[in-house]
Amino acid sequence: MPETSGSTGRTPETDVIDFRAAEQLLAARDPRGAVKLLDSVIAAHPENTAARLLRARAFFAAAQLRPAELEFTVVLEREPDNAYAHFALGRTYERQNRPDQARRHFRLAAALDPNPQYLRRAGFGG
After folding, report:
1. Contact 38, 22 (CB under 8 A)
2. pTM of the complete model
3. What residues does each domain of the chain span?
4. Backbone angles phi, psi at 98, to 5 degrees
5. Tens digit of pLDDT for each residue in 9-56?
6. CB-based contacts of 113: which residues, under 8 Å, 6+ apart?
7. In angstroms, rounded to a whole number, what is the distance separating the alpha carbons of residues 101 and 98?
8. Using CA atoms, how far apart are residues 90 and 104, in angstroms rounded to an integer?
């Protein structure tokens, strides 16, 4: 009998398949479909930071800014040195017209990773 996650009848393989399918949906510009798949993956594996980061990206792409902010924050609580999560949270704050919070996270992203895009958004480069 295959190993399942709780009473959902999900297997680890199902969760991997759903995660990969969610990546494809996000790439195909279907962020809401990605969120739906990731909801069940995260319900089964709430500690999975990669799934949370992907769901945060999907929320952002769907212009669901408050849920995106919450997910990026969870990721950063677990991985405070995640430059991409800082950058994406900065973009989320920027879209919410919260420039001071955005600037803080853009600067943290640039300090963690000298990616030219991060440096530009932080005001450190051309």
Report:
1. yes
2. 0.90
3. 1-64, 80-126
4. -125, 70
5. 788 899 999 999 999 999 999 999 999 999 999 999 999 999 999 999
6. 83, 84
7. 6
8. 7
For residue 46, count CB atoms less than 10 angstroms from its CB and return exposed for 0-12, middle for 13-18, buried for 19 or more. exposed
The 3-state secondary structure of 32-93 reads HHHHHHHHHHHHHCCCCHHHHHHHHHHHHHCCCHHHHHHHHHHHHHHCCCCHHHHHHHHHHH
Helix axes 83-95, 99-112, angle to 10 degrees: 160
Q: How far is CA 11 from CA 17, 23, 83, in A?
A: 10, 19, 32
Give per-residue pLDDT as tens, 69-99. 999 999 999 999 999 999 999 999 999 999 9
Identify the three-state secondary structure at position 5: strand
> Residue 51 has which token pair?
């799934």
Provide the residue type at 120 as one letter. Answer: R
Which two three-digit tokens encode residue 95?
A: 């879209």
